[in-house]
Design brief:
L-fuculose-1-phosphate Aldolase, eight-stranded mixed beta sheet, seven-stranded mixed beta sheet, elongated, alpha/beta, single chain, 3 domains
Length: 659
Amino acid sequence: MNNLWDDQESKQFSSSDLDMRVYTSRLLGRDADLVLHGGGNTSVKASVKNIFGEDEDILYVKGSGWDLKTIEAAGFSPSRLDVLKRLGELPSMTDTDMTRELKASMTNPGAPAPSVEAILHAIVPLKFVDHTHTDAVVAISNTENGEELLTKIYGSSVLILPYVMPGFILAKQVYEATKNIDWDQLEGIALLHHGLFTFHDDAKTSYDKMIELVNKAEDYLKSQQAFDVIAKGQYQANRDDYIQLAEARQKASELFGYPMLAQWKSDELSVGYSSINNIENIATRGPVTPDHTLHTKRIAAIFDEQPVAGVERFAENYLAYFAKNNSEDLTCLDTAPRYAVWKNKGCVAFAANAKKGHVISDILDHTMKAVQWGESLGGWKALSEKDIFDLEYWELEQAKLKLSPSRAEFDGKVVVVTGAASGIGEACVNAFLQKGAAVIALDINPEIEEKFSALNAKGIVCDITDEYSMQDAVHQAVASFGGIDILVSNAGAFPPSVEIENLEDDSLQKSMMLNFNGHVSMMRLCIPFLKRGFDASIILMASKNVPAPGPGAGAYSAAKAALTQMGRVAAMELGGSGIRVNMLHPNAVFDTGVWSEEVLSNRASHYGLTVEQYKSNNILKTEITSHDVADLVVTMAGKSFSKTTAAQVPIDGGNDRVL
């Protein structure tokens, strides 16, 4: 592991101890092998003048909800150090009481809530305290002789303590274990199955110690050839795999109570892990650290030839696990898995939205490596089932269940938008993203990949006149998010105005391929997944030219009319599967690629209008934008239109020719 300290960079944070705390916290956060998504915490003790002008000792500890990788000074909670120390001396305290007392100790009630490890940080008598969930140390501790191995690696320089619950119990354990210790002789504290602490009055020294101790653990792993045993593999997916993935997502979502996303991880690490001979045994022994359980649940679901059956088995086992360990009046969590090992095919991460899915995916990447390291050291051995249950059903976590879940309208939903690089398509992608959806944006323009590249948005180059291109795009969509719930078939182009007597066969054919055939092909490819989706909906971008065609627009009007008719048929065919099919008839949406300057000028001239007059040539005398259309698309895909199908909805400001 590299030491990332940079003398020049550190000078930018040298104005105060808190600023230096920000810097070294970010150094820790930059390395995912040390901390993952909010895991780990840091603190600094400083003397601050209070409102009375008196010096007061304050502990600044990482606040809840902040990530070490990006933390700022505002992300540290200021608490009165003497209060925290006194709390650590109490014989007992519930974690609910502890949380209340931690909030009461704060000097700024507007700051984030202090870490539950605040008391532990307070009782360490050094200025800077660093705590990580380092993969190497935790992996070694998750073996049959973990404590013995860590003692061999560190000798007496590191205090090694058995696992106890985070919060007050852990703080009390450290308090009792260090009462008579010589802190000058101690380089760190290793908590089995949990993590590693280092500390010093100098920020750099505390950080350096963390890297040094982690490197010793990694060096030991290397000496045992643990890094060489990581399995790698490859798998070529087939059509049935994608259908099975969508079915597994559907079943998991039913158990979860809301739509979930499902990311199929088919990289070399995931496929290799899933191909280990005794993977079913290995993947069901427990997590790297109990904290991961709050994201991933205790164990993986195991998928064989029938993934849905694997989801159902997981749910049955989870209920049995809850019944076995529930000794109080606890509320059972949902029984949906958070990740699955799909034998010989990779892994699947299930989550309520893309952000949570990313967390689970990252944790899984580190889990796959750590588990194999542990196996190479004599066998992976996680904490006991009961210990993990106690963390998963911690009173602080149970309290969260009483709060109303915060969900965006389209959380867990997957949307495919064609023609997404500009105009109406691009506006639709952004509108759905704002509502919480995961979106696959398709376009023939290669810029689509860069334009939409985020956790919840994936741009894919796709030619909707090419069946193979579309099939590949649909499969990528399903692999990325687990299925398809909404199809916005928008791609199209308005060809130059040509009267029928001058219309060439090639021009007509091109218009039909792009404005009709491509939409039908995309529907056909998506329907198997829409049937396994949630509140499934198809929205076809038709045109005002369907009810009111214009001269010279025969090729375009005919294609859009055919598309509308096909949409009506699709509504009848798919209604029994709960799939709604509706058509939009936009008119004169000029901020799109359909309307080139040439086309716009020609159409305006045809009606004897200026371009500006033509843009608002409707009953409401208003211009229609791509964002207006996108807002209507999102509305039609939502609850407001849940009882509507086969509708043809104009968005044209009112057109007298249609009326």
